[in-house]
Each structure stands twice: as C-alpha cells, then as structure tokens.
Amino acid sequence: MSADLQPTPPTDSLGVMADAIARTGETLELAARHLDPSLVDVLGILGFDKAYVSARGSYLYDAAGRAYLDFHTGEGFASLGHNHPGVRDVLQATLAADLIDGVQIHYSPLAGMLAEALSQRLPPGLDTVFFASAGAEAVDAAMKFARAATGRPRLISCESSFHGVTLGPLSLVGDEFFKEGFGPLLPGCVRVRFGDLEHLEEELRTKDVAAFIVEPIQGRMVSLPPDGYLQGAQELCRRYGTMFVLDEIQTGLGRTGRWFALEHVGLEPDFVLVGKALSGGYMPVAAMITRREIHQAAVGTLERCYVHQSTFGRNRLSMAAGLATLRIIERDGLVEHAAHVGGVLRAGLAELQRRYEMITEIRACGLMIGIELGAPSSGIARLNWRLIHLASEGLFPQLIVIPLHREHGVITMAAGKNDVIKLLPPLTLSESEAHSFLEALDAVLAECHGSASKNLAVVREIATTTLRRRARAKLT
Fold first, then answer.
1. Neighbouring residues of 425: CB distance < 8 A, sequence distance ≥ 6
2. Which of 69, 203, 218, 271 could be 223's S-S partner, Cβ–Cβ 3.0 to 4.6 Å?
3. How many Cα neighbours within 13 Å face the side chain of 385?
C-alpha cells in the first residue's frame, strides 16, 4: 500500500487510537502476555505472526504495506469484507443520534426493525426473535426454548457438528476434541450420524427429544447433506413432536448463494439461528428466530418475561449494523453474486483437481468451500504424509496454507484435525480476486508435487519438531 493511499490516522480526545497505532509493533507481545500465548506460538510456527495495521475489502495490510487476500474473514464474520464503508456510515450516524441503547428494560426501534427484516427473509411463521451477542448464545437459547415448549429433556445433534464452545452448545458439539477437560457436560445430549435418517429415527421414537439441532451444511469440513436428508429429518421431527432447529450461523445471510441455506431444499424449521455475518464484520450480534407460540411457551407470561435476557443482545450498534448488512446484501445483489463467484471458484478448483492428485474432493455451496487433500501416490511422499499425520491430524493442510500466506499473500485455514482446507471469502469477492486465489493455489500445488518441495520440507520439520517435543514430554 503506497504512502499516498495510507488513511489519515484517526484521533480521539482520550488518545486511545493514537496509543493503539503507536503500539502496533507490540500487538503479539501484548497478546502473549495477557491473552493466549499458545495461539501466539501457533501463529509464529505457521508464519501468521504478522503485524496487520489495516484492513479494507478483501484485503489485510501489514506494516510493510503488503496486501493479503483474505479467504478466512474470521470464519465468515467479515462477510461484507473488512470495514465496509456502508456499515461504518450507519454506525457513525447511530452514535451521533444519541438513541437510548435499547437493552434490558428499554427498546429502540432498531431492534424491532432488524427482527422484522430477518423474519421477512425466512419462511412464514418465523416471526419472533431473540437477539444475543454470539452464535453460541443463540444456540443455547434454542436449547432452552425447545425444552420449555415441548416439556421434553433430550437434545440431539450430529457427529462432526459444531455449535459453539460455551457449556450448553459444547454439549451438542460432535467432536470430542473440543470437550476434553470441560466435563461433565449437559446431560441428555445425544449425537447421531449426519445424513443417517434411520439413526435419527431410532432416537426420536422415544418421544422424549425436545429438539434436533443441525447445520444444513456442516461448517467444520464443509460437509454437504445427502439428497433428501434435511427434508427427511424435518418430516421425522414433525412425526415425533420434536423441534427442528437449523443452525445457520455459518451458512446464513448469503454465504451459500441463498439468503439462507434452508431455501435450497424448501425447509420450514421451528427455529433458525444466525450470527457471525449478521453485522457485516463490525459488532457481536446473533439471533434465534422462532414461532410466536414457541416463544410464548418459554417466556410468555408476565411473571417470566425477564427470565431469558441478554445484557447487550439488542444494543443499538449491533442492531444498526445488522440492518445495514441486510440492506447492503440486498442493494448490491450479494446473494446472487456469492452464487456466481462461488461457481467461478468451484470450476477453477475442479480444473486443479484434474491436474493434482493431492486434491481428492471439492465440497462447495456458494462461497462456502472445502478442499479435501489426500495421500500422494509416490513412496517417499506417502512416507512424509504418514510422518506428518503421526505428529498431528490437522498438520497436512499446512503444506498448502503456509506457502499460500507466505509466498502469495493469501489467507486460508485448515479446518481442524483433518485434511481439509476451508474457504470463507467475503461475499463481495470479485472474479479477479477469485482468479488470483486460483493462480496462487495452482503455484503452491505445483511446488508441492515437485520432487524437491521446499514446502514439504517446512511442514515435515514442524512434524519432526512436534514429535521430538512429545517424546521429551513423555520422559519428564
């Protein structure tokens, strides 16, 4: 970023921003000292320990002015790209209006307007909204309301699912890795195989299940449902009196090329949960949307109207950012744009898959994409693959992620303890930016398939170091 494009540093009467800008070089040191030193260490190992000084649109910029194309966007949080001027304009106007903040015993018109706008984009009857600060809080609200509305204790989710890391939603999560050390968790929570209707019906037959909570596309590895699965699950829930809850925290608001993923197969759930992208990358905000009769069954009496609240859930800035985000998505045709650019990426990835054996599967819906990697066929490469997996089940994708970032200025992410690279670029991603990513990925894959891959050497060294540390730890 050239000097003439550098924005004028912001000022405030208390000097907060001046101090923050002055201390940019201390960012990771402060984080290691007062926040999460383990995460700082991981960023250093992967080469992600950059001092980013600004972000705009699809790009982050480091202190040297280098631009990084962001295909992570905070797990889809910055859905409109970074620092979208339209949302910023609305937030500044909201602050200038000196409105009452609309939390606890007060309401602002913004909360009702955002609830109305969400309801208008969902199936009929989903007209009652509870606002929260994070997706996990919205999941927790659905768990409580479903139990209250049905009088039933049990909750069902899917294996490999992810619904949040607070204690209630963590009880639903389908990966034991996230739960280690945090038990005992909430009783009455059972997991079934994603895509298996027979397994689901086995659990529902007891008629003691309050809700089946499912992601229409599993976010961790971008796992798509089998044809007919979600419709069948909805029908089974209706048959056995169980609430059907769609967790659209990652799939909602244009991500899959529709306003909500439920539209792809015409679902009419009892609850829809949204979050992450709802503020366009600015404010913490999430929502549980349900039917009026379900809400009334949980908190619908004068005596119980305050038993489920969220201190900052409907604060004016979050509500304003949510409204701005919905209007920008509508105005700029970003739902259709996500479907189109997602198709460009999917076609380009399919071409790379034909040329590189390392890509075994592409799973995509709109701008939610998973690239699954597989073991190479050559003997030495396969031995390296085994070494890397012995060190960590989620290390192999770094063979692609690290050089994409280091050499090509592209930010992607490994999907966890698996061999999947996950892409969640902004809905505003241009076709030229999509092609830039594909060119960078092509170059990295070509290098990785070479006989003397330096990228493979880097990841192999990380694996070897990890195994040595593990061995030393066992000896002490």
1. 58, 70, 71, 73, 367, 433, 434, 437
2. 218
3. 15
Asked if 279 and 235 touch (Cβ cutoff 8 Å), the reply is: no
The yes-or-no verdict on residue 135 having pLDDT over 80 is yes
**What is the Cα–Cα distance from 119 to 243, expressed in whole angstroms?**
18
Q: What are phi and psi of 68, to 5 degrees?
A: -125, 120
Angle between helices 431-448 and 334-355 (to 10 degrees): 20
Decide if 421 contacts 371 (C-beta within 8 A). Answer: yes
Cα(300)–Cα(290) distance, rounded to whole angstroms? Answer: 13
Whole-number average pLDDT of the chain: 91
Contact 79/72 with Cβ under 8 angstroms? no
Whether residue 261 contacts residue 284, with contact meaning beta carbons closer than 8 Å, is answered with no
Taking the C-alpha atoms of residue 257 and residue 251, their distance in angstroms, rounded to an integer, is 9
Strands 67-70, 286-290: pairing is unpaired
What's the confidence (pLDDT) of residue 295?
Answer: 93
Helix (H) or strand (E) holding 263: none
Q: Which helix (H) or strand (E) holds 196?
A: none
* Residue-level pLDDT at 300: 83
CA angle, residues 36, 37, 43, in degrees to nearest 5: 100
Distances (CA, A) of 247 to 129, 252, 263: 14, 9, 14
Residue 280 CB coordination number (10 Å): 31
| Count of all residues that appear for the chain in the document | 476
Q: Bridge-partner residues for 213, per DSSP?
A: 245
Helix intervals (H) in 153-291: 167-170, 197-204, 229-240
Provide the greatest CA pair distance for the chain.
72
Gap between the Cα atoms of 404 and 411, Å rounded: 7
d(CA 441, CA 356): 11
| Single-letter code of the amino acid located at 81 | G
Q: Are 335 and 254 in contact (CB under 8 A)?
A: yes
Which residues does 465 contact at the CB level (< 8 Å), separation at least 6?
Answer: none
Say if residues 286 and 57 touch (Cβ distance below 8 Å): no
Nearest to 45 by CA among 431, 470, 472, 461: 461
Summarize pLDDT for 138-190 with one digit per residue, the tens.
999 999 999 999 999 999 999 999 999 999 999 999 988 889 999 899 999 99
The string of DSSP codes covering 146-189 is HHHHH---EEEEETT----SSHHHHTT-S-GGGTTTS-S--TTE
Q: Give 442: exposed, middle or buried? Use CB within 10 Å, 0-12, 13-18, 19+.
A: middle
Query: Taking Cα atoms as reference points, which of 207, 194, 212 lies closest to residue 156?
Result: 212
What CA–CA distance (Å, rounded) separates 74 from 310? 23
Q: Which of 146, 143, 144, 163 is nearest to 241 (CA)?
A: 146
